[in-house]
Amino acid sequence: MFTGMYNHQLDDKSRLRLPAKFRSELGGSFFCLKGYDNTVLIYSKTKFEKFCEEYEDTPMSDVSAQRALGEIISTSFELTEDSQGRFVLPSYLKDYANIEKNVVVKGVGSRIEIWSDKAHEERTTDLSFNELVVKLKKGEA
């Protein structure tokens, strides 16, 4: 399970190093894809493969579901770390998330989220913890 929030920077070659505890949980290979609110999501290879398997029997007649699957799967990238634990963030995803240099890396249960520092700051809520819990319980968060 991924937890915690970390501030990191891309280097001049658009490489990013994830926190060590995240890297050990991901293994050597993982998937990076578009996420909600212009974030980049990272899933372990196992988790992403389970997602793909879950939807592989979606009927071709369900056009909206096929479009959604096409968008999600075709914009994902399988990545591996270099010898120093870094990976290159694909330019397509970097542009999608408006990432320049500074990022916020968050562990959110079964996934990792990468936010541009500016987007994360704008998205941070002023709600109290209790208000967030109530919204989550009601499905409004």
What is the alpha-carbon Rg in Å?
Answer: 16 Å
How far the N terminus sits from the C terminus, by CA atoms, comes to: 21 Å
The coarse silhouette is globular
Strand percentage lies at: 25-35%
* CATH homologous superfamily caption: Transcriptional regulator MraZ domain
From the helix content, strand content and strand pairing, which structural class follows? alpha+beta
Q: What can be said about the biggest beta sheet? A: 6 strands, antiparallel
Please give the domain count: 1
Q: Can you tell me the CATH topology? A: Chemotaxis protein chec
* CATH C-level class: Alpha Beta
Tally of separate helices? 6
Mean pLDDT: 91
Strand order of the largest sheet: 1-7-8-4-3-5
Low-confidence runs:
none
Helix content: 25-40%
Q: What letter string, H or E per element, gives the SSE order?
A: EEHEEHHEEHEEHH
- β-strand number: 8
Give the CATH architecture. Answer: 3-Layer(aba) Sandwich
Tell me about this structure.
With 141 residues, the chain is of the alpha+beta class. The chain has one domain (2-138): Transcriptional regulator MraZ domain (Chemotaxis protein chec). Helices cover 38% and strands 30% of the residues. The chain has 6 helices and 8 strands. It has helices at 20-26, 45-55, 63-74, 91-96, 117-123, 129-138, and strands at 2-9, 15-17, 29-34, 40-44, 77-80, 86-88, 102-109, 111-116. It has a 6-stranded antiparallel beta sheet, with helices on both faces. A two-stranded antiparallel sheet has the order 2-6. The relative contact order is 0.23.
